[in-house]
Amino acid sequence: MHNQSFMKVDISSILGQINENITFFQPLFEAIINSLDAQATKIEIDIKTDIQKTFFDNIERLSIIGYSVTDNGVGFNKENRDSFSKYLSSYKQKIGCKGIGRFTWLKIFDNIDIVSYTGTEKVSFNFNRNFSENNIKIEYNNNQCKTVVNFNNINTDYYKKYHNEKLINSDDSLITDIEQIKEIISDYLSVKLFLLNNSGSKFDITLKLGKYTTNLNNENIVKFNEKNFSIYSNLNEEQPIKYDFSLYYTFENNGKNMHKHFYCAHGRTVKPFTKSIVPKLLPNNDSSIMLLTSEYFNERTNNEWNEFIFSMSDNNKTITNPLPIPYINEHLRNVIETILLEKYPALANDNQKIIEESIDEYPYLAKYIKEDESQIKVKPDVIKSAQKKFIDEKEKVKANFIKMLENNKYTNKKVFIDNIAKINDLSARELAQYFLYREQIIKAIQKVKDDKETTEADLHNLFMKMGIISNSEEVDFGIYDTNLWLFDDKFLTYNCAFSDKKLKTIKEYISKEEKRSTDNDNFEPDIAIFYNNVSNNTKDVVVIEFKSPNAKELQNGVGVYELSRNIYPVIEVMDNVRMAFGYVVLNINEQMAKNLSKQPGVKTISFGDCPIFYIYNDNIEDKNHNKIPVHLYIMSIDTICKDAELRNRTFLDIIKNK
Predict the structure, then answer these.
(1) Are 576 and 538 in contact (CB under 8 A)?
(2) pTM confidence score
(3) Residue 61 burial by CB count (10 A; 0-12/13-18/19+): exposed, middle or buried?
(4) Is the domain of 68 the same as that of 184?
């Protein structure tokens, strides 16, 4: 014997290599496909049922105990017998057969009785785990072509898979509704039957279950529209390879909102589409069927036709899988959205509304939500995509920023400021991430402070970019583009903030009335902030002055003078000031701390590593000559950072403990 027959291959070993995902109806699917491949035009399926006790609870239930398939195909002639008797036969590979389908029969049934009339012979045998081609009985017979395949004796291994109440609901042998069985067959073979119909092949599949009968034929199968597209893939910069895909699709106005979407191979449905490819709800609750086919899939299924040889979630291109499913889905989604917009133009009407609703619900993702390029917006998909973009960008920026901080010497100021800006953008978008990145800002400022080349402008820009006005009208620079929270989180509620702007500009913002020029108009507070207090009827004023960490003591003293000089011209043109705060940020060494503590009117709030000195000034009046309480603080950069770090850590601890 030259063929690799079952006598030379242990069937039990073959069955051990077949995966355990064989469904109850897969032997039936394979038998129908065999009949169609044998050029059968009439196929009759007889479903046999009986009342029997289920394996796990011993309760009597109506269930399928077997089925038979009868057809008028060419039958088990010599070529088909030789193929049947050979493991992994190549006889029908051109039409998508892998030579293993009949072994799936034995994963469900212990005995399959076959009687076949070929026109010249009667061929009969029992196919089981002990089968040998020597068991095939051949007799001369000139009856018309007819083959009957009887599936009997469901094996105990199948029933053992459904060993509890939850799993029993997945036991397809308990499906005894003939229309449901017809739908299962139609779903699995939709593409094959559609293509056979298009090629002119005739078929009539009759299902019988007791007194009930139904048909699946050329007239009532699902008819599809077809959309073809190509995807190119290249590995290692080689010549791109083109892979062709065909999407078969149809819609039904039945109000059921049922969707069946599958990746297919050789006329079989293999795996359902991954989520988020198609909108969950179509207008009028329409239903849809979509089947994606390609030679790419044909070449990459397992022998049982129920899995691909690649992971559905793997996004890495390899020689064996140059088009990962996520990559295919990007192209498939565009094709499907084009189809849907042609069918349902109104789907695009809600796009802007969905964008706005998504931003309202997830304001920290606004930047990424606005970048969504899908033709049909689906809120969960838009948000999920934005979250992924946010996470990807966050990890990238964080890694780059930490790497920069780990450098021994701070040198590139522009890169440093740019990275600070990126950190700010991310930190504003999610509370947990916001406080986490605050820690990095504090570390960055401490590092800048320790650099011998740091200037006053460098420090100033880290708190708020110089030359900027931030208010509700300036949309390009908002609250979260500053680091004013380092002083106090309440400063983030400001109405307007000026960075390195002349007093004349600030006074014009306060009062629209024409003012005469004064000698102090050209003075420039480093930062001036106006924000509402709790009553929202009056405003608090904040003025901040910076000095370089490397400034000498006398230069630092000038900063204290500049603070008073710049704060009173602002207050005296206002009539709604509640109180004012002033901050001088400088490097306070031990000697300067001692000198400050000896000055008249200066109170020491904190000494040591976190020095804070306080001056109360009641000599400033507003526009109506009301005295305004002014609180002036002289503090070091270390003090600001340690205070901010303590507040930040409190928030982070709360989040971590949730």
Answers:
(1) yes
(2) 0.57
(3) middle
(4) yes
